[in-house]
Amino acid sequence: MTTALAQELTIERFESGQIDADRFDHEAHVYVAWLFVTRLELADAIARFDSALRRLTAKLGVPEKYHATITWFFLLLVAERSRYNEGWQAFKTRNPELIRDNKVTLNRYYSEARLFSDLARRQFVLPDRLRT
User: Fold this and answer.
1) Residue 69 domain boundaries
2) Considering the domain boundaries, does residue 70 fall inside one?
3) DSSP conformational letter for 111
4) Residue 120 belongs to a domain
5) How far apart are CA 30 and CA 34, in angstroms?
6) What is the pLDDT of residues 2-54, one digit of tens each?
7) Which residues contact 19 (CB under 8 A, 6 or more apart)?
8) How far apart are CA 106 and CA 108, in angstroms?
9) Are 74 and 130 in contact (CB under 8 A)?
10) d(CA 29, CA 1)
11) Which residues of 1-132 form beta strands (DSSP E)?
């Protein structure tokens, strides 16, 4: 993710749907999640990020891309691993597994059957694998 893109990605722009979908890759998702959980109370961060992502996928005509469990799980992981007054670059350096292929991270916690169930797409479900 470029510095220019990071400067464009704000809570306000995300909530208003002013996001360039072509540049909004996995790292950008994690960055915006980090913005939410480091600036808001966790319950508020989850509710607002979740609502904004649902609106964004609907606006882009791809509501099927929304996945509640993946959304909430990454928000919770980012919140758990965030440190007070730590900048994005430090967070990113300490947590490369959250930035690279998210399938590896998800597979540590969820079976495919659970993660890709209809229930998991609609609402958050707890992991069915132990963290190793």
Assistant:
1) 3-100
2) yes
3) -
4) no
5) 6
6) 776 778 899 999 999 998 888 888 899 999 999 999 999 999 999 999 999 99
7) 9, 13, 56
8) 5
9) no
10) 10
11) none
pLDDT digits (tens, 9 = 90+) for 87-122: 999 999 999 999 886 788 899 999 999 999 999 999
Element (H, E) at 36: helix 26-39
Task: Report the domain count for the chain.
Answer: 1
Give Cα 96 to chain centroid, integer Å.
14
Q: Provide φ and ψ at 93, rounded to 5°.
A: -65, -40
- How far apart are alpha carbons 82 and 63 in whole angstroms? 29
Q: Is 58 a domain residue? A: yes
Sign of CA dihedral 132, 36, 94, 65: positive
* 118 Cα distance to chain centroid: 19
Q: What pTM, to 2 d.p., does this model score?
A: 0.90
Place of tokens 């904004």: 52
